[in-house]
Amino acid sequence: MERTPIIAANWKMHKTIPEAVSFTREILNPLDFSGTDVVLCPPFPALWPVAQAASGTPLQVAAQDVYWADQGAFTGEVSPVMLRDAGCTYVVIGHSERRHLFGETDENVNRKVKAALRHGLTPIVCVGETLAERDAGETFKVVEKQLAAALLGLDGEEAAGLVVAYEPVWAIGTGRNAAPEDAQAVNHFVREFVRSRYRPEVAEQVRIQYGGSVTPENAELLLAQPDIDGALVGGASLKVESFRAIVYAAQRL
Predict the structure, then answer these.
(1) pLDDT confidence of 170, banded at 50, 70, 90?
(2) CA 164 to CA 132: how far, in whole Å?
(3) How is 75-93 classified by DSSP, letter by letter?
(4) Which of 83, 141, 225, 239 is most buried as measured by Cβ atoms within 10 A of its Cβ?
(5) What is the rounded distance in angstroms from the CA atom of residue 242 to the CA atom of residue 233?
(6) What is the DSSP secondary structure assignment for residue 3, as one 8-state letter?
(7) How far apart are the C-alpha atoms of 125 and 112, rounded to whole Å?
(8) E strands, the chain, where?
(9) Which of 64, 61, 59, 69 is nearest to 31 (CA)?
(10) CATH class of the domain comprising 6-251
(11) In terms of Cα–Cα distance, which of 158, 133, 157 is closest to 145?
(12) d(CA 214, CA 173)
């Protein structure tokens, strides 16, 4: 079946509110959205201003994290209710930087996925191996463990609506990216894993991104792979020209 490519800009801890709004206005003039979902993932303070700047356009907004409770005494956390109120339609969950720098566990990822779905947010669930795990030949084992935990308790309809982002940890921010055929192998593994847990049509619907040093130079080769349905872009998403070029690379396929 035809899956709409999704290109998301993960700005991480970059861009002040004025910088984020300026980027949003610039990327929209012009940006052809034909057949592609385009998502900006600003830091929390810029979510509402970016959503306002993108209002009335196809450009969508994602948060970079979420807490699993709707409200409560959780200092420093942001709930899915708040994210919806700020204009988000997507949320990134389980990014390797959250896992490795801030102790995010597979169990926490699952709780956040369920909370996001409960409030109509589409999770972008990140999975991926470290360099040590890759060198030990454990890529598929690690990805399977992370994915199984993320999907725990989800029905087929919920799973079909997810976005999964394969982001090898060793390729994030390093300038190294997985070879297209290697990224395709893991993305295909993800799709087959989903197929083994749900109906075949669920596996065909779920969108699987690749992330990890995606650039305008390598985007087209990566996105041409049959099981790569988009990109979660880090460094190259900080400049309008390079991010726009990646969006257009997806549209040429």
Answers:
(1) confident
(2) 22
(3) TT---HHHHHHTT-SEEEE
(4) 83
(5) 10
(6) -
(7) 10
(8) 6-10, 37-41, 60-63, 90-93, 122-127, 163-166, 207-211, 230-233
(9) 59
(10) alpha beta
(11) 133
(12) 9
Q: What's the whole-model pTM score?
A: 0.97
pLDDT digits (tens, 9 = 90+) for 129-143: 998 999 999 999 999
Tell me the catalytic residues: 95, 167
Residue 182, token pair as written in the block: 């290697």
Between the CA atoms of 132, 224, 218 and 8, what dihedral angle is there, to the nearest 10 degrees? -80
Does the structure show a pLDDT above 90 at 117?
Answer: yes
d(Cα 10, Cα 93) in Å, to the nearest integer? 12
Secondary structure of residue 185 in the 3-state scheme = helix
> What is the spatial distance between Cα 98 and Cα 91, in angstroms, rounded to a whole number?
13
pLDDT digits (tens, 9 = 90+) for 69-90: 999 999 999 999 999 999 999 9
Task: Please tell me the number of Cα atoms within 13 Å of 145 on its side-chain side.
Answer: 11
CA distance 202 to 187: 15
